[in-house]
Every structure is written in C-alpha cells, then in structure tokens.
C-alpha cells in the first residue's frame, strides 16, 4: 500500500465509533523496516501548520484493520 492510499482513509476508533480524522504523517523505524506510529492532526488544522503537536498519535500495533475506505483503531 502506498502512503498516498493510506492518507485517503478515515481513521475510526472501535471503542466509541468516533471519526478521528485522516493520517497526516507517520514514524518509521529504519532498523526494523516498519511503521511505529501514525499521526492524525486536529480537525480544522491544515497540515499541522497552526499547531505544535498532532491531536492523535497512534501506535501501529493499535491499528486493527485497514479496509478499502477506513482504518479501524483500538485507542
């Protein structure tokens, strides 16, 4: 899957069915060759230009399913 495909999907919490937003950035571990965390900006913020930190930082192990339109997370 390409990063451009990943950021087009909405991230939804499985616990309360809340739409968290869309992935803006990710943290990659070069030594292990895998994604560590994904970052979701606060709603209404444009590419993190007007805030110092993302609203949500989700560990990749908390991603339960990546579907054709949504990403389900357990946070």
Please describe what this structure looks like.
The protein is mainly β and 75 residues long. It contains one helix and seven strands, in the order H-E-E-E-E-E-E-E. The chain has one helix spanning 3-6; strands at residues 10-13, 19-22, 25-29, 34-40, 56-59, 63-66, 70-73. The chain has a four-stranded mixed beta sheet, with no helix packed on it. Strands 3-4-5 form a three-stranded antiparallel beta sheet, with no helix packed on it. A hairpin with a 3-residue loop joins strand 6 and strand 7 (70-73). The longest helix is centred in the N-terminal third of the chain and has 4 residues, at 3-6. The protein is globular, with a radius of gyration of 12 Å. The model has no long low-confidence stretch (mean pLDDT 88).
List descriptors.
75 residues, mainly beta, three-stranded antiparallel β-sheet, 7 strands, 43% strand
Q: What is the overall number of helices?
A: 1
Give the CA-CA distance, first to last residue. Answer: 23 Å
Find the structural class using helix and strand composition. mainly beta
Biggest sheet features: 4 strands, mixed
Record field, number of beta strands: 7
* Unreliable residue stretches: none
- Series of secondary-structure elements, N-terminal to C-terminal: HEEEEEEE
- Helix share of residues? under 10%
Strand content: 35-45%
- Spatial arrangement of strands, main beta sheet: 2-1-7-6
């Amino acid at each position: 899957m390409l990063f451009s495909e990943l950021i087009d999907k909405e991230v939804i919490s499985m616990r309360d069915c809340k739409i968290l937003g869309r992935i803006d950035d990710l943290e990659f571990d070069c030594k292990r060759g895998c994604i560590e965390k994904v970052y979701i900006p606060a709603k209404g913020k444009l590419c993190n230009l007007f805030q110092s930190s993302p609203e949500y930082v989700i560990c990749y192990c908390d991603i339960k399913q990546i579907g054709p339109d949504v990403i389900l997370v357990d946070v």
